[in-house]
Amino acid sequence: MNYLITGGAGFIGSSLTERLLDDNNKIFVIDNFNDYYDVNLKEKNIQPFLANKNYKLYRGDICDRNLVKEIFRQNHIDVVVHIAARAGVRPSLEDPLEYVRSNIEGTINILENMKEFSCKKIVFASSSSVYGNCTAEKFSEDLKVTEPISPYAATKSACEQFLYTYSKLYGINAVCLRFFTVYGPKQRPDLAIRKFIELIEQDKSIPVYGDGSTMRDYTYIEDILNGICAAIEYDKTPYEIINLGGGSPVTLSQMIRTIEKVLNKQAKIERLPMQPGDVNKTVSDISKAQKLLNYEPKTTFEEGIKKFVEWKRTVNND
Prior knowledge:
There is one protein chain. Helices cover about 45% and strands about 20% of the residues. The chain is α/β, with parallel strands linked by helices. A 7-stranded parallel β-sheet has the order 3-2-1-4-5-6-11, with helices on both faces. A two-stranded parallel sheet has the order 7-10. Strands 8-13 form a two-stranded parallel ribbon. Strand 2, helix 2 (about 40-45) and strand 3 form a beta-alpha-beta unit. The two termini are about 35 Å apart. The relative contact order is 0.13.
């Protein structure tokens, strides 16, 4: 199979590239290597693939109409896995126009080329942030997502709707996967788990927003990859929105205690007020993923933290 992975130099994209290359597929990656975080980390992510004859990297923006058209024209693309997006809830409050450009316009550019070149399958990386400050016990896909509390969340919700439109009009098979707080090896340095581990190891204080009761449904990267691969194969219905979560939400205080246990080191905590755009909790209902994708998260939170710390120490010793 020939895959186009957008955002393929990032955490999830490069992890998926590794998985799909191992199965002898052809992988085409587009990534603009923006400086939202250290570009050197993205360069390290792609380094193992550059000599592989089944891998081709395009350095550029998904909003670049000429470049994206050229990728589709030069290569027969069977499946698009669309992960590229301007990331981050808090930064989206500072520059919403850039989020609209990158996330919405970029997605429509991909869809327009799929339409033109008859590519009939897309798996889209959506986000649990679309649920906003949902008060339901569990977040299921049939809940209304009309109250996003950040521009980032609003762009993800808009993209889901555009995918529905293109699926309906042009026969594109689309699966929107709502990821719940993905973590693991190669995780972005601005995200809490990696940030906290690095700060604790350096004997520096960690910034804790709120009283520690906020809750996240952390999902280990290997479980996410299993869900993406199952979504690629899914063809029973033309359009679906499916949660991919860990199934066992963890409070911020529990997260810190788990990291302390794995590192065998106590955290120094700096208490700060809750930030605009942050949600109180994310709790995934994964029953639809279990039914349609045979999805079962296998990595407990503590196991995932141990694996991440082991990977980080290996990388630091290279």
